[in-house]
Amino acid sequence: DAKTTQPNSMESNEEEPVHLPCNHSTISGTDYIHWYRQLPSQGPEYVIHGLTSNVNNRMASLAIAEDRKSSTLILHRATLRDAAVYYCILRVSNNAGNMLTFGGGTRLMVKP
Amino acid sequence: DAGVTQSPTHLIKTRGQQVTLRCSPKSGHDTVSWYQQALGQGPQFIFQYYEEEERQRGNFPDRFSGHQFPNYSSELNVNALLLGDSALYLCASSLFGDLYQPQHFGDGTRLSIL
Predict the structure, then answer these.
(1) B44: which chain A residues are within 8 Å (Cβ-Cβ)?
(2) Does A32 touch chain B (CB under 8 A)?
(3) What are A13-29's pLDDT values in tens digits?
(4) Is the peptide bond before A112 cis (omega within 30 degrees of 0)?
(5) Paired sense of beta strands B53-57 and B44-50, if any
(6) pLDDT class of A96 with cuts at 50, 70, 90
(7) Could you tell me what percentage of chain B is helix, strand and coil, using 3-state DSSP and rounding each to the nearest 5?
(8) Model pLDDT for residues A39-70, shown as the tens digit of each residue
(9) If you ran DSSP here, which 8-state letter would residue B103 be given?
(10) What 3-state class would DSSP assign to A9?
(11) Count of CB atoms within 10 A of residue A41's CB?
(12) Which chain A residues touch B94 with a CB distance below 8 Å?
């Protein structure tokens, strides 16, 4: 399966935008890019996903590079509650079993 | 609408013992996956159950086994516990074959081996 690379940690100020990068240079044409986050003492929760076009939802935006070799999760106004580990995951289209392959993720720290 | 529920929340065992963890999927979901998360690492896939059968398995020994019941709930069993089995065990539910909808995770069972 294609792998993703993320920075180990990032820091942001409260109420400022946060851009979390993810590299996936070996992505195949039908792999979906998914983002999950894990708040302290909780299980992972879905954030957003996309294939080729940029995507927006109530939680975040996902910007996907034209060559799809990288993507960026955008939190428009970070809050203290957004402090979590963010995982960028590629979901293989022929993986009917839906297993998720997590990497180490990016630990986001938000300063008040 | 209840999400994924796991029990117990915490468990302490000693080496060599056996443990059973339980998971109830989100309403409407038919597939349950189990993950192991060691401290400071991302979750690692153990196996997945659909229609009461193991459908996929990660790189885990046979000491790890599972079961799915007709109501879609699931159990994870670990035999001959080792110190290295200390971890957070996460259950996730989904619809089989649906790559577009997210998996829903429970908050896990924290297993400590003494």
Answers:
(1) 102
(2) yes
(3) 999 999 999 999 988 88
(4) no
(5) antiparallel
(6) low
(7) 5, 50, 45
(8) 999 999 999 999 999 999 999 999 999 999 99
(9) P
(10) strand
(11) 10
(12) 98
